[in-house]
Specification:
mainly beta, 4-stranded mixed β-sheet, 53% strand
């Protein structure tokens, strides 16, 4: 018989043979407390940044961290700076050998990838629509800046309109933490 007690329990088994003789036996199943552990949610960060894996543990006598399956640390909230996407697992254990674990996936991105609208050839007085698309960032915060700034009423918007008086090159730069800078240029030719 399979049992899953939630508290320490004594089980008694009674057996009877074909002659009506009975025998008793007991077994004590001691239920030990489980530790609990919880770390941060999955996160995306830039290559070169550091991150504290803030962790709480209850009822544990120790912790063991592994990074992509390799033991890495035994501190409660280690600071890490992975250079590639890494899966961190923290296992809490207690004096009875009971364990609990939690996992955090740290996605590391090298740079911000973007794509700008094609260059344009326009007649004098015509408006040009420009745009930049963020292809990969994973970051919640980044800043877009169009240059020369004085040509744009809102130089931090992804899309812009411009009526150039002469041929020029405009640039758009995206800055996002240590992922740093992605700069694109757009040639505008005025006929």
């Amino acid at each position: 018989t399979l049992v899953t007690p939630t508290a320490t329990t004594m089980y008694v088994v009674e057996g009877t043979n074909v002659f009506g003789c009975t025998a008793l036996d007991t077994v004590m199943v001691t239920v030990r407390p489980l530790p609990t552990v919880e770390t941060i949610d999955d996160v995306t960060m830039c290559n070169g940044e550091t991150l504290e894996l803030t962790t709480t543990a209850t009822g544990a006598t120790g912790l063991l961290w592994t990074a992509n399956g390799i033991p890495s640390d035994s501190t409660q909230s280690p600071t890490v700076n992975p250079t590639t996407t890494t899966n961190y697992v923290v296992q809490a254990y207690n004096q009875y050998g009971c364990t609990d674990s939690d996992t955090v996936l740290v996605k590391v991105i090298e740079t911000i990838l973007s794509q700008v609208s094609d260059g344009a050839e326009v007649c004098e007085g015509e408006k040009v629509n420009l745009s930049i698309e963020i292809l990969e960032t994973g970051l919640s915060h980044y800043q877009v800046t169009w240059m020369p700034r004085e040509l744009f009423a809102t130089p931090h918007d992804l899309s812009q309109s411009l009526t150039p008086e002469e041929s020029m090159t405009v640039q758009v730069t995206i800055i996002g933490g240590a992922c740093s800078v992605d700069t694109q240029s757009i040639e505008i030719v005025v006929n």
